[in-house]
Automatic annotation (TrEMBL):
SUPFAM superfamilies: Trm112p-like. This is UPF0434 protein Ga0058931_3142. InterPro entries: Trm112-like (IPR005651). It comes from the Bacteria. GO terms for cellular component: cytosol. Belongs to the UPF0434 family. Pfam families: Trm112p.
Amino acid sequence: MTPDERGFDRHMLEALVCPITKAQLRYDAAAQELISRPAHLAFPIRNGIPVMLVDEAREIE
């Protein structure tokens, strides 16, 4: 497994789900976020580590 240029391992995405809906997440490389469309939340990735805390997530449309 090779991390991409920003340090996030895309293969980790296969193991992660939204903590609220348990739905699959979409990786947004430009924003360095994991997107949960069903929950309307974007979880940040900091220093290559996904922050899967609802309090840290950003609401999206």
